[in-house]
Every structure is written in structure tokens, then in C-alpha cells.
Specification:
Layout lengths: L1 E7 L3 E8 L17 E10 L2 E8 L4 E6 L4 H10 L17 E6 L10 E2 L2 H9 L8 H15 L4 E5 L9 H4 L5 H4 L10 H15 L7 E7 L3 E7 L2 E5 L20 H8 L6 H10 L2 H6 L5 H9 L3 H25 L4 E5 H6 L1 H8 L11 H5 L5 E2 L8 E4 L4 H11 L2
Parallel strand pairs: 1-6, 6-8, 9-12, 12-14
Antiparallel strand pairs: 1-2, 2-3, 3-4, 4-5, 7-8, 9-10, 10-11, 13-14
Helix pairs in contact: 1-3, 6-15, 10-11, 11-13
Length: 406
């Protein structure tokens, strides 16, 4: 069974093809297989042009710069590399059995993945009011795939679905209820990553997922936590939008709403400028004045830059504070999981974060932490809480969702 995954974002399009040889009645492997084809589109490469990179399991590599910014045209061209040219891994589009799409916002109605039909497409378009950057891009990917693959089943895997089990106390904002009736509530995001890490943590620990209390820390350019009990998200940090919660690369995370009122009253400020400030100019970038990327900030700290040190400290303080809130929701903890770009690759962040929870009996093995630690336990043998580093594989989780709906 060949499952194509399209992960369409606002600034990039990531795609891959899995060739699963399992009998249709058998279980998928515990360890994610390598895709036989992978492609990335960088929509922000240069003004008026787009960069495409393709690689295959056979080692073939293609890199092109194309003078157009038409998303449907570029996606169609990218997909053609599946069956034509040096990167071909299939003979025709007819060999694709299912196409899975990451869709950021599924609202209240989509509590699990769904086979795409006109009703689902209409909902994705309607919910774009809550995710104006992402849902339209997700829908473009769906429609481009329809043109290429015709009636091949397509599946929408919603980022919000994993958090659909939040209790009213966790998802309700303390504002007049008439606004809640308009859909203003906590939805949570990064659900595909949190779901994958939950299942993978159970495998690594050789425990049943239903028996575990987990805090999964998705730390990339965007950051969020999930408190997971019985395999379900019961609390999370992102809310109505991905702007709430942790300090992130260029997003502010949670701040006093009065600041927004104050800023909007300034003569040089409007809603669009404020949105850009909070999403693109804040977080690590805003405090450090250097970068939204943690790596140059850590280098600047080594060079004695005090603003870089402050940015690091603010980031860690936010992370610890929100982990504390997740602990209260869970009533205890079996494992703390680090994932995504920063979570997987920054021993400094892991060490600084764990240092705040030694009172729980959580003990980090510094030698293991400083190694390239992926899909492993980096706590000491006598630690009361396991500390895991897991390489998140959202594309494989999307493929799994497709398999389950076959």
C-alpha cells in the first residue's frame, strides 16, 4: 500500500511517500519506515521564484528553482517527480492508494481524522477564519492532489483533533459566554506531533499508553506542551490560536491582554501591525534582538551577550512554568518528553528545564543528555520520572491515520 503524505504550510510544503508492504489486516511496524520519496517546497526562497528539493531512497537528488509562485502549479510539478525523471519511484499516479493531508484547524466538529469529501473541504475553508495562514494552504494541497490523483481517497488529519477531549474547564475562556458560542475556546495545536510522541513513548518505556501520565514538549520555532493521561490530551498550552502559551521562536506566547489594549491605543499601531509584532517579531527574536533560532543565541551567550542570556532565561522560565501547570492537571508524572527542533537538539534547554523539577525525583543523566539522543531515555536509572528525547515524525503519524481509515 502506497500512502502519500502532503504537509502544506504557509512557508513550505513537505511531502513524502511510504510504501507499506504489510498485509492490509496486519499492524503497522512500531518503528517508522523510511519514506521512498521525499520533497520540500520553499515558498519563501526568492521573490518570484520557488525552490524544490526531492530525494529518494535510492539516493537520487533533485534541486530546482522555478520562476513561479503559483502553489497549484508548483505542487503539481513536485508530484510529477514521483513518476517522471531521475527521482521516479512509481510508474504512474494510479499506484498511489491514499493521500494524507495535515490540516491545522478542524474546529469543534472534527474530533478525529476524516476521509475528505465536499463537506470536509467546506469545513476546512470555513474554519480558515480561525487559521487564516494555514487552512487555505492545506486546502490548496488537497485540491491540487484531487487534480492529479482523481478519485484516490484523501484523508484530512487535523492538528486540533488530538486535543478534542479537553474538559470544558480546560478549553473555556473566562469571557462572556456569547463569544464561546461563536467558537472562541482553546483548541490546541501540534496534535499530530503530540499523538506520535505519546505512542512512541509507550513503546520506548514498554508500557501501555493507558497507564502513562506524560508531558510532551514540542519545542520548535512554534512551541507547545500537552498533558496526556490514558493516551488522551487533557491540557495543552496553545489555545484559540497557536500564539498562546510558551515563549517561542518569534511568537510572544501568553502575555497580559492589557498590553494589547495599550499597544492598540498607540497612534502608530493597528491590528495588522500588532499581529505581525506578536507572531513575527517577539519571542526569542524579540528579547534577544538576534534571532528566532536558539543556536545563534547560545553562541551569543558564550560571547557574553546579556540580551541573549535574558532571552534564554525567559524561554526556560516560560517552559518550566507551563510544565508546572501541566503537572497540576495530571496529578503526577511518569515521563517528560522533549521533541521537535529545539527539544531534540538542545541539551542546554533540556538540562535547564529539568533542573527546575529535581524536587519530583527527576534526575537527568548529563552524559546521555549531551550525546545525540534520539528515541531514548536520558534519565538516570534511579530517576523517579523518565526523561525521553523523541524524534517527532508527523508525516508517519499522518500515514498511520490513513492506514486506520483504509
Amino acid at each position: 500500500m502506497k500512502i502519500l503524505v502532503l504537509n502544506a504550510g504557509s512557508s513550505s510544503q513537505k511531502s513524502c511517500l511510504y510504501d507499506l508492504e504489510q498485509d492490509l489486516k496486519s499492524a503497522l511496524p512500531d518503528t517508522p519506515p523510511e519514506p521512498i520519496w521525499e520533497a520540500t517546497v520553499d515558498w519563501t526562497h526568492h521573490a518570484g521564484s520557488v525552490e524544490i528539493k526531492v530525494k529518494t531512497y535510492q539516493g537520487e537528488v533533485l534541486q530546482q528553482e522555478i520562476a513561479t509562485t503559483s502553489r497549484p502549479e508548483i505542487i503539481a510539478h513536485m508530484l510529477e517527480t514521483l513518476w517522471s525523471g531521475e527521482t521516479a519511484v512509481i510508474d504512474s499516479p494510479a499506484e498511489i492508494d491514499m493521500v494524507g493531508h495535515r490540516v491545522v484547524h478542524g474546529g469543534e466538529e472534527y474530533r478525529q481524522s476524516a476521509i475528505i469529501n465536499p463537506e470536509v473541504k467546506e469545513a476546512i475553508a470555513r474554519l480558515a477564519i480561525f487559521a487564516p495562514v494555514h487552512n487555505p494552504a492545506n486546502l490548496e494541497g488537497i485540491e491540487a492532489a484531487e487534480k492529479v490523483f482523481g478519485d484516490t481517497p484523501q484523508v484530512a488529519v487535523f492538528d486540533t483533533a488530538f486535543h478534542a477531549h479537553l474538559a470544558p474547564a480546560a478549553y473555556t475562556y473566562a469571557i462572556p459566554s456569547k463569544y464561546a458560542e461563536q467558537g472562541i475556546r482553546r483548541y490546541g495545536f501540534h496534535g499530530t506531533s503530540h499523538q506520535y510522541c505519546c505512542d512512541r513513548a509507550a513503546k520506548i518505556l514498554n508500557r501501555k499508553v493507558e497507564d502513562l501520565r506524560l508531558i510532551t514538549c514540542h519545542l520548535g520555532n512554534g512551541c507547545s506542551l500537552a498533558a496526556i493521561r490514558n493516551g488522551q490530551s487533557i491540557d495543552t498550552t496553545m489555545g484559540f490560536t497557536p500564539l498562546e502559551g510558551l515563549v517561542m521562536g518569534s511568537r510572544s506566547g501568553s502575555i497580559d491582554a492589557g498590553i494589547l489594549i495599550y499597544l492598540l491605543r498607540q497612534p502608530d499601531m493597528d491590528v495588522d501591525k500588532l499581529e505581525h509584532l506578536l507572531n513575527r517579531e517577539s519571542g526569542l527574536l524579540g528579547v534577544s534582538g538576534i534571532s528566532a533560532d536558539l543556536r545563534p543565541i547560545i553562541q551569543a551567550i558564550a560571547d557574553g551577550n546579556q540580551q541573549a542570556q535574558l532571552a534564554f532565561d525567559v524561554y526556560v522560565h516560560s517552559l518550566r512554568s507551563h510544565i508546572g501547570a501541566m503537572l497540576a492537571s495530571l496529578g503526577g508524572l511518569d515521563a517528560l518528553v522533549f521533541t521537535a527542533g529545539v527539544g531534540e537538539n538542545s541539551p542546554d534547554i533540556r538540562a535547564a528545564t529539568c533542573a527546575g523539577f529535581e524536587f519530583l525525583g527527576l534526575k537527568l543523566d548529563l552524559d546521555k543528555n549531551n550525546q545525540k539522543a534520539i528515541d531514548c531515555d536520558i534519565s538516570t536509572p534511579d530517576s523517579a520520572v523518565r526523561i525521553l528525547v523523541i524524534h517527532t515524525q508527523e508525516d508517519w503519524q499522518i500515514a498511520r491515520e490513513c492506514w486506520n481509515l483504509k
